[in-house]
Amino acid sequence: MHIELPEKRYYSIGEVARAFKVNTSLIRFWEKEFDILKPKKNAKGNRKFTPEDLKHLKYIYHLVKERGFTLEGAKIHLKEDKKEALSNFEIIEKLEQVKHQLIKIKQHL
Asked: Per the domain annotation, does 6 fall within a domain?
């Protein structure tokens, strides 16, 4: 999945939900279900997601929405191969970004 967000330190839950094309309630639910998600909260209690949180959300989205894992299955998968799976996923994400850029270049030619 390719999401387009500007380079920032923190993203609001609304920005994140729009980027993933899901409801904010799903993001909040995943935050409760997955220990890997730890967005910061400001004085008002608003969630602020870092780029690292976005990487984790992309991986959870990939497991649950694209690969069809159940929540329990995704939790088990994250616990078993956390570092290796995340690094492999990041490599795949970078390759998909390169592919996306190449497609854009090809369309402009």
From this structure: no
How far separated are the first and last CA of the chain, in Å rounded?
Answer: 25
- Among the listed residues 48, 60, 44, 56, the one whose alpha carbon sits nearest the alpha carbon of residue 15: 48
Which domain range does residue 80 map to?
Answer: 11-108
The mean pLDDT of 45-62, rounded to a whole number, is 90
Domain count, the chain: 1
- Residue 19: inside a domain, yes or no? yes
Average pLDDT in the 52-81 region?
87
CATH number for 53: 1.10.1660.10
- The model's confidence at residue 109, banded by pLDDT at 50, 70 and 90, is confident
